[in-house]
């Protein structure tokens, strides 16, 4: 995937360490949660990274791989995929710096999907700098040796980068993504417990695909609705964007029990490579992501182009989206890690070809 296919934000941005939701237009009963941001130490790579595999293992945050331009893209630099794994104890403390694991990924890799499981961080597909890959593996932190061990999982049914994924014990779900031939309409799941038990016959299972267009860079999260638990999937791009209309807003709910899809209320805006996280059983949050605004002027604006930094809240109990605050910096491809009561938001791309090394801790206060 070439860098010109993904619109990105402007380098002009101000650090807002506390982003508060506006509640003046809503009745007290409908007041949204408040987003609180705390800046942490930056990543060890001063250039920053996009598309890192991210999660927790044995009380530590792991951020692995990812891509950047060591030589700026505008100066003719090439996108580079990295092998290093960054580690930090959890809970996070402002004084704790990031460290680099003694060992790293076998090859430069990034821009795949990742989910935290009780067995480690599942890294799913991605790109190796030449093409999308089908590899899948667990990263596990070994505190005694201060190393990261890697355990193979069954390969994905096909090569896939920039897919959306979610974990609901014992199943890992992967939707959409981008292959060498274009966006995918695939939907797979893997029984992680059975896969780790060792039967050679265990593999990814194909589920009914989302009825919407094939896409990559979509969002996926688990939400509880009045009808039961569902997987929310939407957003993304159906291929190389030609206008803002290509930035998909449709959203769909997958019934885990029935194995069927149903259309739901559309996202307020396009959201490509946005960060998605679950606040609680019923509510999910979408941060940043490209929406294709000012599409015709993207090249003209260059580094001045801005990506939305607003936060979109989906409430499964009411089937409603709302805007509830902002990020300190709008990005695509940020790493997000659930820390249990707060979230790490690290890196991402904030302007064409430019990554940020900044990391933040997000906490949510109910009104």
Describe the protein in words.
It is a single chain. The protein has 367 residues and is an all-beta fold. The chain has one domain: Kelch-type beta propeller (Neuraminidase, 6 Propeller). Helix content is 3%, strand content 40%. It contains two helices and 30 strands. The strands form nine sheets. It has a four-stranded antiparallel beta sheet with strand order 1-30-27-26, with no helix packed on it. The longest helix has 6 residues, at 192-197. It is globular and about 50 Å long. Residues 1-29 have low confidence and may be disordered.
For the record, the CATH class is Mainly Beta
Total E-strand runs: 30
**Largest sheet strand order:** 1-30-27-26
Kindly report the average pLDDT value: 89
Summarize the structure.
The chain has 367 residues and is an all-beta fold. It contains 2 helices and 30 strands. It has one domain: Kelch-type beta propeller (Neuraminidase), CATH 2.120.10.
Question: Which terms would index this structure?
Answer:
single chain, 367 residues, mainly beta, Neuraminidase, 4-stranded antiparallel β-sheet, 3% helix, 40% strand, globular, disordered N terminus
What is the secondary structure topology, with strand pairs?
Blueprint: E1 34-40, E2 53-57, E3 60-64, E4 67-68, E5 80-81, E6 85-89, E7 99-100, E8 113-117, E9 120-127, E10 132-142, E11 147-152, E12 164-168, E13 171-175, E14 178-179, E15 182-183, E16 187-191, H1 192-197, E17 205-206, E18 219-225, E19 228-234, E20 251-255, E21 260-264, E22 275-278, E23 283-287, H2 298-301, E24 310-315, E25 320-326, E26 335-338, E27 342-346, E28 349-351, E29 354-355, E30 359-365
Antiparallel strand pairs: 1-30, 2-3, 3-6, 4-5, 6-7, 8-9, 9-10, 10-11, 12-13, 13-16, 14-15, 16-17, 18-19, 19-20, 20-21, 22-23, 23-24, 24-25, 26-27, 27-30, 28-29
């Amino acid at each position: 995937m070439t860098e010109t296919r993904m619109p990105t934000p402007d380098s002009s941005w101000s650090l807002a360490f506390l982003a508060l939701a506006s509640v003046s237009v809503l009745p007290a009963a409908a007041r949204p949660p408040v987003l609180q941001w705390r800046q942490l130490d930056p990543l060890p790579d001063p250039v920053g990274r996009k598309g890192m595999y991210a999660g927790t293992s044995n009380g530590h945050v792991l951020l692995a791989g990812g891509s950047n331009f060591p030589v700026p893209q505008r100066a003719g630099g090439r996108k580079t995929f990295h092998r290093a794994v960054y580690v930090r104890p959890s809970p996070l403390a402002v004084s704790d710096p990031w460290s680099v694991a003694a060992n790293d990924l076998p090859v430069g890799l990034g821009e795949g999907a990742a989910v935290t499981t009780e067995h480690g961080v599942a890294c799913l597909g991605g790109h190796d700098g030449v093409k999308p890959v089908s590899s899948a593996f667990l990263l596990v932190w070994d505190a005694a040796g201060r190393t990261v061990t890697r355990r193979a999982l069954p390969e994905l049914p096909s090569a896939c980068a920039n897919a959306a994924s979610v974990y609901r014990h014992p199943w890992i779900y992967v939707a959409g993504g981008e292959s060498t031939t274009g966006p995918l309409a695939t939907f797979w799941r893997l029984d992680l417990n059975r896969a780790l038990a060792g039967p050679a016959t265990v593999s990814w299972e194909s589920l009914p695909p989302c009825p919407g267009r094939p896409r990559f860079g979509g969002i996926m999260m688990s939400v509880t609705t009045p009808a039961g638990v569902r997987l929310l999937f939407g957003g993304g791009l159906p291929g190389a964007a030609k206008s803002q209309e290509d930035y998909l807003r449709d959203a769909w709910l997958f019934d885990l029990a029935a194995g069927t899809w149903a259309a739901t209320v559309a996202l307020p805006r396009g959201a490509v490579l946005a960060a998605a996280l679950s606040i609680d059983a019923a509510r999910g949050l979408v941060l940043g992501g490209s929406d294709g605004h000012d599409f015709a002027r993207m090249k003209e604006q260059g580094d001045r182009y801005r990506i939305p930094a607003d936060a979109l809240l989906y409430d499964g109990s009411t089937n409603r989206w709302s805007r509830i605050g902002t990020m300190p910096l709008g990005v695509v491809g940020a790493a997000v890690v659930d820390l249990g009561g707060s979230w790490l938001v690290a890196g991402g791309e904030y302007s064409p070809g430019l990554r940020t090394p900044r990391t933040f801790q997000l906490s949510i206060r109910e009104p």
